Amino acid sequence: MNLAEKLLKIDKGEFDKEKTLQIKSRQLTELFGEPTNITIKALGPQEVLDITATGLDDEGNPIIKKALETNAILVAAAVVDPPLKDSELLKHLGVATPSDAALKLFKGEVNKISTEINKLAGFDIGDDTDKQIKN
C-alpha cells in the first residue's frame, strides 16, 4: 500500500484535530513548590511564522533585543493553561497583555516553551531525519 492509499484511509477530521501538549514549567514548579505542567496548543505553521517575523529586521535577520519579546508573544498565543488571555489573571498579575503575563510567569523560560510550540507546529527536523535523507 502506498502513502496516498494510507492517507485516504485516515478520517479527514484527523488532519484538523487540535493538538495539545503538557510540558513542565520550571518557574511554576518553583512558585507552587510541586511539579506543575502547562498546556500548549499547536499553532498553525503560518501563525508561528507571522509571530516570529515580528522579531526580524527588514532583511529577515533576527533582532536580538526583540527575541524574548517575540517568544513571549508566541507563548501567549499557544499557552491555554494557565489562560494567559484571561482578563482577571492579567489584572491579578498587574500586566496589560498576555505576552506580559507570559514574561511575568515564565521569565526566560518563554524561550524553552517557544521551542516546544515550534515543534508542535511541525518545525522540528531532528538529526534522525537528516541522517535518513542523506542515506
Task: Write up what this structure looks like.
The chain contains eight helices and three strands, in the order αβαβααβαααα. It has helices at 3-8, 26-32, 45-53, 67-78, 87-93, 98-106, 110-120, 127-134, and strands at 20-24, 37-41, 79-81. The mean pLDDT is 91. By secondary structure, the chain is mainly α. Helix 3 (45-53) runs antiparallel to helix 4. The relative contact order is 0.14. Helix content is 51%, strand content 10%.
Key terms:
135 residues; mainly alpha; 8 helices; 3 strands
In short:
The chain has helices at residues 3-8, 26-32, 45-53, 67-78, 87-93, 98-106, 110-120, 127-134; strands at 20-24, 37-41, 79-81. With 135 residues, the protein is mainly α.
Low-confidence stretches: none
Number of strands: 3
Computed Rg: 18 Å
- Cα(first) to Cα(last) distance is 23 Å
Query: What is the overall pLDDT average?
Result: 91
In sequence order, what are the helices and strands, one letter per element? HEHEHHEHHHH
User: What is the strand arrangement across the widest sheet?
Assistant: 1-2-3
* Quaternary assembly: single chain
**Percent helix among the residues?**
40-55%
Mind sketching the topology for me?
Layout: H1 3-8, E1 20-24, H2 26-32, E2 37-41, H3 45-53, H4 67-78, E3 79-81, H5 87-93, H6 98-106, H7 110-120, H8 127-134
Antiparallel strand pairs: 1-2, 2-3
Helix pairs in contact: 3-4, 4-6, 4-7
